[in-house]
Amino acid sequence: MTASDSTGRDERRVTLTRDSEGRYTVRNDRGGSVTTSSGTDELSPVELLLAGIAGCTAVDVDTVTTRRAEPESFEIEVSADKVKDEQGNHLKDIEITFRVRFPDDEGGDKARAILPSLVRRSHEEFCTVSRTVMLGADVTATIE
């Protein structure tokens, strides 16, 4: 759930709880959840960040192209190099690869024609997750 106020803020929130050592469940206010951990088969927090980029840009691109044609296949791969340097641990060289196939018909032709523009606009304008990573955001931590 999002909370808008008179200033136009549109807050997003998740809450993480510890399930066991190194294993956590993240929940949103709508009841959705995902489990994360490190060193197991589950998605790590870094992989969840990459998944957030993939999911955000997928919504941007899929929503519009599907109005023209249902894709035969739709896959987005996001990769990055995890580094530790004088700035601490972080990701660099994040790459987003789209693998999208549409039928060989008029609708598919229309979807293929707008795909490059949608990918570019998602990257440059629409995708909140990748835009935040690219632009940077202040992150603060408090203890209650």
Question: What can you see in these coordinates?
Answer:
Residues 1-41 are annotated as: Disordered. Helix content is 35%, strand content 34%. The protein folds into 2 domains: 14-43, no CATH class; 44-135, K homology (KH) domain (GMP Synthetase, Chain A, domain 3). It is an alpha+beta fold and 144 residues long. The longest helix is centred in the middle third of the chain and has 21 residues, at 45-65. It contains 3 helices and 7 strands; from the N terminus they run E-E-E-E-E-H-E-E-H-H. It is globular and about 55 Å long. A 3-stranded antiparallel β-sheet has the order 3-4-5, with no helix packed on it. A two-stranded antiparallel sheet has the order 1-2.
State the gist of this model.
The protein is α+β, with helices and mostly antiparallel strands.
Strand content: 25-35%
**Structural class category:** alpha+beta
Q: What is the H-and-E element order?
A: EEEEEHEEHH
CATH fold-level name of the largest domain:
GMP Synthetase, Chain A, domain 3
DSSP, total strands: 7
In the predicted model, the low-confidence regions spanning at least 5 consecutive residues are: none
Q: Can you count the helices?
A: 3
For the record, the count of structural domains works out to: 2
Strand order of the largest sheet: 3-4-5
CATH class of the largest domain: Alpha Beta
Under CATH, the homologous superfamily of the largest domain reads K homology (KH) domain
What is the CATH architecture term of the largest domain?
2-Layer Sandwich
Shape verdict: globular
Computed CA radius of gyration, to the nearest angstrom: 18 Å
Major sheet: 3 strands, antiparallel
Protein name: Putative OsmC-like protein
Pfam families: OsmC
Biased composition (Basic and acidic residues): 7-30
InterPro entries: KH_dom-like_a/b (IPR015946), OsmC/Ohr_fam (IPR003718), OsmC/Ohrsf (IPR036102)
